[in-house]
Amino acid sequence: MKQNISTIVQEFLERPIADLGYELYDVEYSKKTNGMNLTIYITSPNGPITLEDCEKVHRMVDPLLDELNPTADMPYYLNVSSVGLDRPIKTDKDYKRALGQIVEIKLFTQVGDKKQYKGKLISFDESKATIEIEKGNTLDLLKKNIALCKIYIDF
Fold first, then answer.
1. Which SS3 state, helix, strand or coil, does residue 103 take?
2. Structural domains in the chain?
């Protein structure tokens, strides 16, 4: 049922959140120490998400969720959050946003002599991602073998 609530909410809120100028990245419905939490993760093509952005989306979605009643009157805490810099790259939209950036990729099974690679994401399609690991040296990685892909953050 938890997965269904996340899916129902995601489908229901995708358009209204887009109409505000944000992108609905993910919805998570899970138990935390304070009870059930419905967390809506947003991103923006216009730059980083601010606290004001989260508040704006929260105020807009709260009455819509009251109308939808996805938990059948079971109580929950509503959270709206930025996805963060280290968010996983999962969908084609995510891969498209990450094109040209340095990514870290962890694999389920070893490719070559490694299970982890870092390189510039230069292309992708429905089955693979291609990274440049050294100048002019590329590597194709099957998406089904990618356990985690995210933007590389250098501190």
1. strand
2. 2-82 (3.30.300.70), 92-151 (2.30.30.100)
Q: Give one word for 43, left, alpha or beta, with left for phi > 0 and alpha for psi -120 to 50.
A: beta
Helix ranges (DSSP H) in the chain = 2-19, 51-68, 92-98
Q: How many angstroms separate the Cα of 87 from the Cα of each of 3, 55, 91?
A: 20, 20, 12
Q: What is the mean pLDDT of each run of 10 residues along the chain (155 residues)?
A: 82 97 93 94 88 97 96 96 86 89 95 94 95 91 96 86
Q: What gap in Å lies between CA 113 and CA 136, rounded to an integer?
A: 19
How far apart (Å, rounded) are the C-alpha atoms in residues 27 and 7?
7
* Residue 110: Cβ within 10 Å count: 10
Note the pLDDT of residue 2.
54
> What gap in Å lies between CA 69 and CA 52, rounded to an integer?
25
Tokens 């997965």 found at = 3
Closest by CA to 121, choosing from 140, 137, 98, is 98
